[in-house]
Amino acid sequence: MARQSKRGRDAGTGQFITIKEAKRRPKTTVIETIKVGRIKKRK
């Protein structure tokens, strides 16, 4: 089962920012939920 991780993103530039910063500027930022898959083991 995949885990979910939240990331903040600036809507204008597309750069990732902290969630704290994204909550501070809600008009110009987006908080996205990204699925994080399992790490496969190498042989």
Task: Explain the overall architecture.
- There is one protein chain.
- With 43 residues, the chain is mainly beta.
- The protein has one helix and three strands.
- The chain has one domain.
- The chain has a three-stranded antiparallel sheet.
- Strand 1 and strand 2 form a beta hairpin.
Short description:
By secondary structure, this protein is mostly beta strands.
| Count of separate DSSP helical elements | 1
Largest sheet: 3 strands, antiparallel
User: Spans with pLDDT under 50 lasting ≥5 residues?
Assistant: none
Strand content: 35-45%
Strand order of the largest sheet: 2-1-3
Query: What is the CA-atom radius of gyration, in angstroms?
Result: 14 Å
Q: How many domain regions?
A: 1
Mean pLDDT: 88
* Strand runs, count: 3
Q: What series of H and E elements makes up the topology?
A: EEHE
| Measured distance between first and last alpha carbons | 22 Å
Q: Overall 3D geometry?
A: elongated
User: How much helix is in the residues?
Assistant: 10-25%
Structural class: mainly beta
